[in-house]
Each structure stands twice: as C-alpha cells, then as structure tokens.
Design a protein that fits this description.
Helix content: 55-70%
Shape: elongated
Structural class: alpha+beta
Strand content: 5-15%
Strand order of the largest sheet: 1-3-2
Number of domains: 1
CATH class: Mainly Alpha
CATH architecture: Orthogonal Bundle
Radius of gyration: 17 Å
Length: 102
C-alpha cells in the first residue's frame, strides 16, 4: 500500500480526522485525546497507530507520557502530490515544464 493510500485510509475515519484537528493545535497525550471522545483507551490507541503508520503523527516521550503532534508536512505534501496526479490542468503544466527542460 502506498503512503498516499495509507493517508487516505487514515483520513476516512471521522474520529481520526478529529484527532488530527486536536493535535494540529498543540501536542496532546493519548489520555488527553481519549478524554475528548467517549472511547476506550485501546480504541484511541488503535486510531493513533493508524495515523502514525500513515506518517500523519509524530510522537515524543516526556517522562511517562507520550505526546502526539500532527505532521503537517506529510499531509500537505501528500495532498499536493495527489492533486497533481488527478487534476488535469496540473498534468498539462507538468508536460509543459518537461518540454521546456528539453
């Protein structure tokens, strides 16, 4: 599975999109994230793992806590790359650039 596929799979869940929204503002621990949802800690951990596998989250250990933070560069890069592949005007621009190089 490509990284873009992993990102879109991760974003297919409303819970994971909400998690990203929360951690885009500031790093949060898994406990802090779990408090925002009516879900068990293991269920939140599963969502966090999916987001990590898609490289949408960074985690940092501080003492006994692990803090999660959104990797904005991964999301914006993947979305930009996806748009270049599927957006017809971008294909024409890419073709034009290649022709100018030659």
């Amino acid at each position: 599975m490509s990284n873009v596929d992993k990102i879109f799979e991760a974003l297919s869940s409303t819970v994971r999109r909400k998690i990203l929204a929360y951690v885009s503002e500031s790093p949060l621990s898994a406990g802090d994230i779990a408090e925002k949802f009516q879900m068990s800690q293991p269920a939140i951990s599963k969502h966090l793992k999916i987001l990590e596998n898609a490289e949408l989250l960074d985690k940092t250990r501080e003492g006994q806590f692990i803090y999660y933070e959104m990797r904005k560069d991964t999301l914006s890069g993947a979305l930009a790359g996806y748009m270049q592949q599927v957006c017809p005007p971008s294909r024409a621009i890419k073709k034009e650039r290649r022709q100018k190089k030659n």
